Amino acid sequence: MGGIAIGTAALVLILSVFNGFEELITSMFSSFHPDVMVAPETGKTFKLEAVPLDSLRSLSGVEALSVTLEEIAFLEHNQVQDFGMIKGVDEFYAEVVDIEATMLEGGFLLMDNSRPMVVLGSALRNKLSVNVLDPFASVRVYVPKRGRVGPLERPYTSALLAPSGTFFIQQDFDSEYAMADLGVVQNLLQMTGSASALELRVRPGFSVEQVKSNVSELLGEGFSVKDQYQQDEAFRKVMNIEKWMAFAILGFTMVLVAFNMIGALWMIVIEKKQDISILRSMGADAQCVRGIFLWEGMLLSGLGLIIGFSVSLLVFAGQKFFGIVPIPAGFVIDAYPISLKGIDFCAVVMLVGTIGMLASLPAANRAAKIPPIVRSE
Q: For the chain, what is the mean pLDDT?
């Protein structure tokens, strides 16, 4: 019973930690990924004139819409160079995602009068050694020219941008992305009137799925409409696989613990062999005797389950409110995140219940075969 209690507590806590990390990373991604994203099914960009922007903005459930354009670029600052992703965003971008809440330094400023600005990811800022607070600092962005280039022409276009701030979201984004004004990026890429995505924020109280359906119906074929889960589908699937693989490994550990229960119940059958025979002589059939030992095994499993749940809830409360298991310095949080979900409790109950039932069967079947005492004349 103690082994089952420890295994149950471990299962609940491990699944809860995976839930906590998933929610943490999802909240971090929501600062960069919109509720709904529209992108072309083929190619990287599309013409804005082919999209009814006003109709999209007036759709029921759409709170804000932003036009974005991104491309791989080469960035340079004081002879320090690195590749990154330049993303052009319009004035509505801050209404679609909570980018301002992620600012580490400076502010989310794309234009200062007529001076184009750039907002850098924190890791990219570090690689380029940019001092965002220096009013004379600048970052030059290079992209290859489109089409044929003459022998005396430069094969690239460039733009000089002043850093206005640094955002901190997640390592993959922080090390790659630099954000600038949409018009500046369109001119830099020689793609005036084009975009790579439309990003939408869903109004509170409205269904994301319904908004997706309305957007798809309005745009027709040629565009893919994705929610936040689909934008990070590969990553979230990996998280779920890791979570349930951990569940399976601990489940096998519980199976090993169950052998102790098998041995304990088998010893009870041996010790109570004569008592079982007397009970059979008093009229109990084999099914009744089998049921007694099955319920005995389920009782042990149930008590272990209750104790394990109690322990896990105590640890959960300590971690949630006091952070009893801290994370090493340098991470975005101070303690391991943890979150309880009902489906995890159901999975643990089913697993422990099944193991308890199977562990009780050998002893129960053996007890059912013990014959009654036969009175001799």
A: 90
**Residue 329 pLDDT more than 70?**
no
Show which of 226, 259, 279 is a domain's final residue.
Answer: 226
- What tokens were used for 57? 């903005």
Query: What is the mean pLDDT of the segment spanning 237-256?
Result: 88
141 and 157: one domain?
A: yes
Domain check: are 152 and 62 in the same one?
A: yes
- Please check the confidence at residue 53 and state whether its pLDDT lies above 90: yes
Tell me if 374 is assigned to some domain: no
The token duo for 306 is 């209750």
How much is the pLDDT for 155? 83
DSSP 178-247: EEEEHHHHHHHHT-TTEESEEEEEEPTTS-HHHHHHHHHHHH-TTEEEEEHHHHTHHHHHHHHHHHHHHH
Nearest to residue 197, comparing CAs of 166, 169, 231?
231
CA-CA-CA-CA dihedral for 185, 191, 192, 197, to nearest 10: -70
- Judge whether 198 lies within some domain: yes
**Residue 203, phi then psi, degrees to nearest 5:** -65, 140
Domain total in the chain: 2
- Helix, strand, coil percentages (3-state) for the chain, rounded to 5, are 50, 20, 25
Is residue 340 within 8 A of residue 19, CB to CB? The reply is yes
| Residue 190 falls inside a structural domain | yes
pTM for this prediction: 0.74
Query: What pLDDT does 127 receive?
Result: 94
**For 84, phi and psi rounded to 5 degrees?**
-160, -170
Q: 177-200, pLDDT tens digit by residue?
A: 999 999 999 999 999 999 999 999
**pLDDT (mean) for 17-31:** 82
Tokens 């590969």: give the residue: 234
Clarify whether residues 139 and 288 are in a common domain: no
State the residue range of the domain holding 295. 2-26+235-368
Residue 377 belongs to a domain:
no
Q: Is the pLDDT of residue 21 over 90?
A: no
Domain endpoint, select from 226, 245, 260: 226
DSSP string, 293-356: HHHHHHHHHHHHHHHHHHHHHHHHHHHHHH-SSB--TTSSSSB------HHHHHHHHHHHHHHH
Dihedral angle computed from the Cα positions of residues 60, 64, 65 and 66, in that order, rounded to the nearest 10 degrees: 180
For residues 105 and 14, membership in a common domain is answered with no
Picking from 297, 211, 261, the residue whose alpha carbon sits closest to that of residue 38 is 211
